[in-house]
Structures are given as C-alpha cells and as structure tokens.
Amino acid sequence: GTLGIFLAATLSKRGIKVACVERGKLIGRDQEWNISREDMKVFVEMGLLSETELEEVLVSEFNPVRMGFEGISEITTTDVLNCGVSPALLLKYVKEHFLEAGGTLLEGAAFKAATVHPEGVGVAVRAKVLVDAMGSFSPIAAQARRGTKPDSVVLMVGSCATGLPPTTSADLLWSFTPINRRLQYFWEVFPARDGITTYMFAYTDPTPGRPSLKDVYADYLSDLPRYRGISDLDGVSCVRPFFGFVPNWHDTPLKPITSRLLHIGDSAGNRSALSFAGFGSMARHLPRLTEGLAFALETNQTSRGALQLLQPKSPAISMTAAMQFSMGTRSNQVFDGDSFDPNIIQNYLGSSFYHMAKYGESVYRPFMQVTASIFLMGLVTPCSFQDYTCFCSNPYILDSYLECST
C-alpha cells in the first residue's frame, strides 16, 4: 500500500530508523485523489510537504459540492473533498522527504512470511515493529482474518473523460435511478486536470451471482449521458477508465495477531464503510499514529495489547457500516413481485437527507466528509423526544441499523 510512506516519513523525521518495503515502484497513479484543502494542511504541518509543494500537488479545486436524490432532496455545501491531488507528485515529494530523513526504501521487494525476497535474493529486515500498510488485500491481514469473507463490497466503475460538459462543482453522492440489476447505483463527479471524472458505485454483499463489473460498466456507459445532461457519448473521449471493488469487514479495526505488528490504513479497515478510498482517512489519522507509534518505539511498548491501543474501535465507523447496509442491496432480498419497490432506497434516503438538511450543517457536513458521525447519530441527538418522523416514515433505516449492529 502506497499510503504507508506517509507514516514512514513522519517517523523518519522523528529520528526513528524506518524501512519501507514496496512490492513494485513507489509511485502514484495518474488518477487524482479527492480531499479538502484543510485536510491537506497536515502534510505541511508534519513536514512532508513545503507550502510550494502543497500548491503543486493540488492540481484542481472546485466548489460547491452536492449530495442528494433527484426530485426528492438535495444538500449543497463547500470545501468538502473539493481538491484534486496528484498522487504521482504527492508520493514523489513525500518519498524525497523520507529518504532525506534517513529512511530506507526497498522497492521491488515482495512480502512473504515476514521475509523480503526482491528478485529471489533474500534480504532480512530486522525491526522493532512491523507496520502493515499493504491495503485491503494484505496477506498479513488475510491471515489475521482467518479467511473470513467480507461483510460487504463496494463495486466501483468510472472514467476520466474529455468532451463532457465542463463543471466547476462536484457531486459526492447523487442518485437518479431505481434499483437495477439488483443494485442501487450512486454517482460522483469531479473536475479533473485531464477532463471530467465520473464514478458510479453500489454497495452489496460478496455473493456469487452478483452482476459482474463488466455488467456494471455497461450500466455506467448507458446512464452517463443522462447524468451529465447530454444526448449520447459521441464526442466523449475516455482518458482513463477504471473499475474495481473494495471489500469491507464490519468488525474493525483489525486486531493484530502477534506483538510487534500494527495494521494501518485499509489493512486495518479503520475507515468509513461508505468510502472506497483511504487517502483522507490516512491524512486525518497521520498525526495521531505518528505520535503514538513514536512513543511506543521510544518506550518499547510493542506488545500486542499496547499497539492495539493505537487503533481503537470507533463507534462512528461502526455506524457507517450500518449506513452502508441501508444504502445497498443484499442477496436475500426479493427483487420482484407486488411487494418489491425499486425506489425504496431512493425514497428513504431522500427522506433522511431532508432531515439532515433540516437540522443544519452540523449534522450533514460530517456525513459528507465521512468523518466523525453519520446522519443516524446526528438525527438521534437533536430529534430525541422532538421529531422522529424519519425513523417512523422509513422503518427500514432503523431495521438496517439494528440488523447490522447485532
């Protein structure tokens, strides 16, 4: 996982000897990451970027940003995920700062059983703590989970393209279609340096027989003209297509199976189940992880229990799992017959967004940022004994929360 270089660099700047093991080359992709300018300040504060470098890696910036459901409800705000960051430039500069601080980078080194084998030549790496930043498909995390199947997956397709109508605003979550192929689709759009980036995604469970990514991409191409207000895709040129899936385990963060091991980022699962990128989460946790791990190393607190304290269980993240449950479809649902309403997710989420807007930015902004709390927590507090019409009119929301929490 490339995001591990951030923690490696901050620890190196603290005078701690750090070796970063990377399976391939430590380089960033071309497709931009989205984050707020406020969240990016941590890279300057931690010494990973200069002010000049920060401005260089921020390749696009836009406002406002929108979430909602066509014809039902809409929320608009500013300065949330409204900056496009060049991963290639960001990792280039952080890598330089890491090496300048005395860090060791082992590229082209595959991880196997805590032994590194680049090009078949064994290289032993001795360390006080092994930090697992290898992402959702980390072999260490897979061993710790003992082959447990993910509780849910996010199916994501999209592209960066030219020829689409220009925009200076963004959608963080927009939906305009009923359930299709047993999936409820959501959309995002961001202005990008190379064109317009659009994503279409859906939450579901990892059950055989689900629509393939090829099927989902076909739906994306079919609905893209309607989403962007054009008649067809003539004149639209794809710069970069992308597709994939992100697994989610609801029992997070992942507990280490031994002493001297710390999972961070996606390998720990310590991020919102609604997100399919861990960059923002890593940026927000970077100061805490740096201070905590530096203290653990300086005081030799490397036991399993001590390191686990650096990744405490977050009720807010557990709540996002409940929210994802209510935004997605499941294999045991009935998708036909008189009782099936293909607009059920649209309707109850639209009502929920209406209530978020009703109670103001303090309720809906954290949800848009995917940070501290989600709308369920926001609704329960201000609405208690006053206004619980959202739950009453949409009992499926509460049902989903209770089912996911048990």
Description:
The protein has 406 residues and is of the alpha+beta class. It folds into three domains: 4-61 and 82-149 and 250-313, FAD/NAD(P)-binding domain (3-Layer(bba) Sandwich), CATH 3.50.50.60; 152-248; 317-405, no CATH class. It has 14 helices and 16 strands. The longest helix has 20 residues, at 279-298. 40% of the residues are buried. It comes from Coccomyxa subellipsoidea (strain C-169) (Green microalga). This is FAD/NAD(P)-binding domain-containing protein.
Describe this protein with a few key phrases.
FAD/NAD-bd_sf, disordered C terminus, 406 residues, FAD/NAD(P)-binding domain, FAD/NAD(P)-binding domain-containing protein, three-stranded antiparallel sheet, 3 domains, seven-stranded mixed sheet, single chain, alpha+beta
What is the CA-CA span between the terminal residues? 32 Å
Mean pLDDT: 84
How many individual β-strands?
16
Which fold name is given in CATH as the topology of the largest domain? FAD/NAD(P)-binding domain
Beta-strand portion reads 15-25%
CATH 2nd-level architecture of the largest domain: 3-Layer(bba) Sandwich
Count of spatially separate domains: 3
Report strand order across the widest sheet: 5-4-12-13-14-11-15
Protein name: FAD/NAD(P)-binding domain-containing protein
InterPro entries: FAD/NAD-bd_sf (IPR036188)
Organism: Coccomyxa subellipsoidea (strain C-169) (Green microalga)
Topology, pairings included?
Blueprint: H1 4-13, E1 19-22, E2 33-35, H2 37-45, H3 51-57, E3 58-61, E4 65-69, E5 73-77, E6 83-85, H4 87-100, E7 104-107, E8 110-112, E9 115-117, E10 130-132, H5 139-145, E11 152-162, E12 170-175, E13 186-192, E14 195-204, H6 213-228, E15 237-248, E16 261-263, H7 279-298, H8 304-308, H9 315-327, H10 344-358, H11 361-369, H12 375-383, H13 389-393, H14 395-405
Parallel strand pairs: 1-7, 4-12, 10-16
Antiparallel strand pairs: 2-6, 3-6, 4-5, 8-9, 11-14, 11-15, 12-13, 13-14
